[in-house]
Amino acid sequence: MSIATAFRPFRPDDRAAVVRLWHDAWHDGHGAVLPAHVVAERTMESFDLRLGPLEAGCLVAEADGRLLGFAIVEGNEIDQFYVAAEARGTGLATAMLAAAETQLARRGVRDAVIQCSAGNDRAHRFYARAGWRDSGVRQAPIWTPDGRHETHPTHIFVKQLSSLD
Prior knowledge:
- InterPro entries: Acyl_CoA_acyltransferase, Bact_Acetyltransf, GNAT_dom.
- Keywords: Acyltransferase, Transferase.
- GO terms for molecular function: acyltransferase activity, transferring groups other than amino-acyl groups.
- It holds the Pfam family Acetyltransf_1.
- Helix content is about 35%, strand content about 30%.
- It is of the alpha+beta class and about 160 residues long.
- It has one domain (about 5-160): Gcn5-related N-acetyltransferase (GNAT) (Aminopeptidase, 3-Layer(aba) Sandwich).
- It has a seven-stranded mixed β-sheet, with helices on both faces.
- Helix 1 packs across helix 3 (about 45-50).
- The radius of gyration is 15 Å and the shape is globular.
């Protein structure tokens, strides 16, 4: 089943829906793979705080007035990528990833990156199917609300994008 979806830049009135989706989807994908103290810190408030500096690069997926996914593009990276559970298997994630890749290509990015926490097998399979190459695992920094330094084993996916010039 596919969903008729519009992709558009984040608007301030999207904030509550993005924070809720991010919280729920993050816990679904990462709750069992990251340390318990990190999971406990991932509250609605922490996602709201984290969204602030990332709003400018946020692309949302909307269908029938509902926000069903979002991607945050920063530099040469798709920094965050989440789809609502109800939209899985509909093609929305594939279309949203393509839209984020296009956004990067339009900015002149040729070598794109997306990170995937070790243990998030569903996301790992999805990125591989979408043509991203797993370049290996490294101890990557993870965001913490108090700014302390923590790392987690993370797959670094890379993809060469076509020029849109």
